[in-house]
Amino acid sequence: MATHARPSNLDAARDDFYDRLAPESLAPLWKVLSALVTPTPRTPAVPAAWSFDRIQPLLMEAGELITAAEAERRVLILENPALPGQSRITSTLYAGLQLILPGEVAPAHRHAQNALRFVMQGDGAFTALDGERAYMHQYDLILTPAWLWHDHGNETDQPMIWLDGLDIPLVQMLDASFAEHREDRGAWPTSRPAGDAALRWGRNMRPVHAGRAEGQGNPLFIYPFAEWRETLDVLRRSEAPHAHDGYLMEFTNPVDGGPVMATMSAFARLVPAGLETRAARSSDGTINVVVEGTGTLFIDGAAFPLSPSGIVVVPSWTERRISADSDLVLFSYSDRATQTKLGLWRERLE
Ligand code: 1HN
Fold this sequence. Notes:
single chain; alpha+beta; Jelly Rolls; six-stranded antiparallel sheet; globular; binds 1-hydroxynaphthalene-2-carboxylic acid
C-alpha cells in the first residue's frame, strides 16, 4: 500500500495547506469540529436582566422623538449583552418593549414571524388581529401568529407598554422572512366584534363548519391575566409544587393542545413563598417576566434579583434555580415549540 511521506515541518505544511484552501472556499472540518458538535449546548448568549422601571422613562422619551406611525412600531429592543447589534435576546428569539401613546395607531402589517405580546403597563389599548380587536389589560398574553394582519391602537388616555416576543432571529437564520404593509398605512378594517375568538375557541368547543381556515395558526389570540392567574392559585391549593418548576402551566392552542404558536411556547408559573426550586437546565433559552412577588433567579450560580416587571433571560442549558421570598408569579416564553417539533428539546433535572 502506498503511503505519503509526512513533511518534516508539519505545522508549516498544514498552515500552507490551509492558506491554499481558503481561496477555493474550502475549510478543514477537523479544525472546527469540536466547536460545531458540542457535547452540550454552548450558547453565545449570556444571562442578563432588565428593570422595566429603567426602560419605561427611555420609552417615554422615544415617544417624544418619534410617532408610532413614523416608526411603524416604536420599540426598544432588549439585546443580549453578548450579542449587541443583532436584535436578539437569545440565539433564536427577539424581545422588545413597545409604547403606544393615546390616540396613536401602529399601522397594519403582516409577516412570516410569529409574535406574542405580554402587557406591562396600561389598560384598554387594543391589538387587532385579522380584523378583530383584543382590548389589552396588564399581564394579558396576546398572540399574532405568522402571516396574519395586525395593528395596534390606543383610544385610552394612558400610554400602553407591552413586551413583544418574536422568532425573528430564527426566521432570519432560515432566510424565510416575508412581510407586507397596508398601503394606506392605517388600521385593518374591523370585521368581527371583540371577544369573538375567545367565544369560538376558548370554551372547550370548536366551530364545526365556520372559523378561521386551518393552518392559519392558533385562532385563540388572547389569554387574559384574570384567567391564567386564577388557574395557578387552583393548582396551588390542591397539590404540592414541582421540585424544579414550582406550579407551571403552559398556554396552549385549543385546536391541538400544543404550544401557542408554531415556533414559540409560553408559560405561567407560580413559585410559592419560601420555595427554592431544584437545579434544572433545558435546551430552550427562556425569557422570564416577573408579574408578582420577589425572590432570586440563580443562573449558573449568579444571582439575579426578581421583582415585579423585571425581565430576565436564562440562556440554553444554563443551570437555573428559583428562590421565592414572597409568592412569585412569572410569565415566560421560549423556542421550545420549535425544538420539540425538531426532536431537539431536552432538559436535565438535578
Ligand atoms: C412587529 O410586527 C411588532 O406588530 C413589534 O407590534 C415588533 C419587530 C420586528 C418585526 C415585527 C408589532 C416587531 C414586529
